[in-house]
Amino acid sequence: MDGHKSALTVLLIRHAESVPPGTSGLDEYTRPLTARGMRDAERLAESIASTRLDAVYTSPYLRARQTIEPLASRTGIEVATIDDLRERMLSPVELPDWQNELKRSWQDFDYAPHGGETSRDAQARVMRVLDDVAGAHAAGIVALASHGNLIALALHAIMPGVDYSFWESLPMPAVFRLRRAGIAWRVESGAQPS
User: H/E element holding 177?
Assistant: First the structure.
């Protein structure tokens, strides 16, 4: 049996540039892409459009959906939402010092500000999504649109060296090509930790 055909490839896509958090009248679910983000989503779609996709999934957040929709449109695949692809919730309230809190959560995977999601819990959530996708698609190529912190936590589970600095350096958008053969995931391409 050809090992290439019996493996699943996941294109794990970080959304393009969005309007900043705290923008009046918008929340995590409704924050859209900027004009630059929309252009980058179109460019992303052009670069991936020749890939034969079997499915396209997105976070419920608008910025992730807007990033993946041009690709789905070009490939004729309907976008399905997976709630657990949403960004990691560091805190249910706005934190003035959120970057230091986030850094601390990368140093201590069991830490989160009151009411927030720990790195350990968010990582387990995203890995369940990947495993569920692998259960639904034994082979082929699937695109998943999600968010920087959650994607970095998934990558941390798969390869050493992914940390807060890696998350900080992630571009928008970014694409990581993951491969699963058997029960193991590996990162085939994308930005590697230094």
Answer: strand 174-181
